[in-house]
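Table S2 (continued). Query chain:
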Amino acid sequence: MAQTKKELSFWQIWNMSFGFLGIQFGFALQGGFMSRIFQTLGAEKDAIPFLWIAAPLTGLLVQPIVGYLSDHTWHPKFGRRKPFFFFGAVFSTIALFLAPYSSALWMAAGALWILDASINISMEPFRALVADKLPDSQRSYGFVVQTLIIGIGTWIASNLPWFMTQLGVPNTAAAGIVPDSVKYAFGIGALVLFSSILYTILKTEEYPPENMEEFQAEKNQGFFKGLSEIVRNISTMPAVMKQLGLVQFFSWFAFFTMWSFATPAITEHIFGATDTTSIAYNDAADSVGNYLGTYGLVSMIYALVLAFFTSKYKINRKLLHMLSLLAGGLGFILIYFIQEAWMLHICFSLVGIAWASILSMPYAMLSSSVDPRKMGVFMGIFNMFIVIPQIVAALGGVNFLYKLLFGEAVINTMLLAGTLLILASLSNLLITDRQATHD
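Corresponding output:
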């Protein structure tokens, strides 16, 4: 007999999702400032995407396995997903703290690899936890609350180096040395990451498996049997998952382009700064982080509005996602045309609308379309549609496409990102399953 899941209050959902604050501190710092670290250590602009390659490659392998293992884990005290939260937090904290102390490109790329893999060990079980704990009527609400927390984390973390500079922490350093403002920011991020995930672990209880005998039998099948099950689930994934996969491909290709190129593109095009040892460049890079924080802030506000709305009314998930992605695409394209730096706040506000939707609506649609007993492994498999576009982009996809379609100037990467988000928006038209698209 299926478990009857009671509806949870806002604060109960907040507590079980609070660890995402730390996860997003990690993602925002790596997305906003790893390219700055790479440039400081001597990387050429066109080489930056390749330095990101290890992270998504690892995610392609790690996330389905972590999802499968978390589906088949249970302890009366530690639960199902929480052990993965904890071990992911430990390794993420270490990697985040050490990343800005890298003295060579291979060290920074290695730190990014460990950081991204470790964050993903925690992240996918967090997605599965929402589906584990909430009835279908609260799924959109639950994922939107996660997005609210993610928006808070993005905004604060993206502004940390700028804030450190305002407190008097040095924002420049000798050639090949990462400024102290960035080191302090990553250190604070490491502390927040670990403590916020620990808060969720201490404040959240999990449901036990519905049928313990069946659960134990499946659990004892062995690791290689588990790998074959992952492959089987990939080959038999629901149609909705495949359709969402195309939307995700274009969406995450666009955001990988932003994370890789926003700093070099905007510091050069808007601020005219290219010397990584100069005050002008480092101040401009801080400003880029500040503008990137805008998309986190707006995603937080947008998620707050959605949280209120979805707690009371039903929504058309597909239409909402489609319009949100279209707004983000226009935001990226506008970056190319603006004349004043302050207008970046407008551009990234539109991007923030897309970001809030990307972090909630696809997961809400997916969670209504898969077997709840396999929620972890399907969330892990679904993450393939996040990492595959990043791999394609890192292996030369970004460099090839932006130069082919728009020209050599690095600011053209933002035109590419905008085009990709518009394609993602239109791809939603392929999703026709009403159970997935409507609350």
